[in-house]
Structure formats: C-alpha cells, structure tokens
Amino acid sequence: MCGGRGTRLDIEGEKPLFRVGGVPMVDRVVGALENSGVERIVAATSPNAPETQSRLNVPCIETPGKGYVADLDAALADDRLSRPVLTVAADLPLLDGEIVDRVLDEHSGGSLSVLVPASLKRGLGVSDDTTFEDGDREVAPTGVNVVGDGPDDIWRTRDRRVAVNVNTLADARVAEQWL
Predict the structure, then answer these.
(1) Band of residue 44 on the pLDDT scale cut at 50, 70, 90
(2) Contact between 6 and 14 (Cβ < 8 Å)
(3) Phi then psi for 100, rounded to 5 degrees?
(4) Domain MobA-like NTP transferase: where (predicted)?
(5) Which of the residues 29, 74, 130, 147 has an alpha carbon 20 to 30 A from that of 44?
(6) Cβ-count burial of 134 within 10 angstroms (0-12 exposed, 13-18 middle, 19+ buried)?
(7) Contact indicator for 142, 95 with CB cutoff of 8 Å
(8) Residue spans per domain, the chain
(9) 5 pLDDT above the threshold of 80
(10) Alpha carbon separation from 124 to 20, 25, 37, 92 (Å, rounded)
C-alpha cells in the first residue's frame, strides 16, 4: 500500500518516497518483502503517488487515492490478486524479511490483523492515532495484515519492526534511531 499523501508528515513530495536513513520507505518495504517468503509483490499506488509508481520495479494496481480503506478495497477487487493477500503499508521502514515471515507463520487461514500494544508505540515515542480496546488492552494496528476468506484472527506482538509507522517527522526520527 503506497498511495498515501502523507499530509501529517508535512513534506514536499510523496510519502512512500520519504527517506528514512537515506532510503525511501517504499524501497525498504519492498526489500523486506523480497527477503521474505512472499511469492509475489504487487504495489497499490494512487494518483497521489505518481513518482512512486514510476520508481517501482513491481506490478502496480492503481487505486483511487481516497484513503487506506478505500484503496485497499480497490486493490483487493483487482483480478490480479487472489486471497489470502498480505497487505503492508509503505510507511514501515523497520520492516524486514524475518518479521514478514513471522506474520506469514502466524497466519493459519482467513484474515489476520497484526496488532501492537498502544503502550509500546507510546514507549517508543511514535504516533498512535488509531487505537482501540481488544479485551482489556489498548492496541494499535500495524499496517501489516493478511486479508483472506474465512474467520478473522489477531496476532499481538511487541515487535518494534511493525510498531513504528512513519506518519510524522518525529516518527521518522524514532525510526532512524532503530535502523
């Protein structure tokens, strides 16, 4: 998923091309996927990210650029994808092949949401704009999920590689500390 505008980053340019540690975030995510057991990489781009689309050396699905959920729905409707589909946001610069493989190992059919404790995000000093209660714990989505057919499952982890989404310049500084 690499079609976001990145308005909270308050930068010139496209969010997926924002450099963390000197490397565009989308390149870091594609590299993590290439170093994992993922069989095929397809990028979901939008009119918000034309330079990202032209830079990528993977097939792209054009989405409307109306937000994460709308763009995900559009990508999943494309005939080139069949479920289950691992979805990964382009703003996860700490992602690597090992944690991607761990997510794949945790998937046992259906859909899988990867969550981290909101307290972990706060402890790391990164934004936690979207949180919700899961039982007795406040959790946050990570930007990594598996969308499948069948029952939904949740994997809770404390792994910073999926906890650090770069949505603000402060988030980028935290990510750079962990590279």
Answers:
(1) very high
(2) yes
(3) -60, -45
(4) 2-119
(5) 130
(6) middle
(7) no
(8) 7-178
(9) no
(10) 16, 19, 28, 14
Cα 72 to Cα 54: distance, rounded to the nearest angstrom: 20
**Which structure tokens are listed for 25?**
């975030």
Region 7-178: CATH code: 3.90.550.10
pLDDT over 70 for what percent of the chain? 100
pTM: 0.94
Per-residue H/E/C for the chain: CCCCCCHHHCCCCCHHHCEECCEEHHHHHHHHHHCCCCCCCCEEECCCCHHHHHHCCCCEEECCCCCHHHHHHHHHCCCCCCCCEEEECCCCCCCCHHHHHHHHHHCCCCEEEEEEEHHHHHHHCCCCCCCEEECCEEEEEEEEEEECCCCEEEEECCCHHHHCCCCCHHHHHHHHHHC
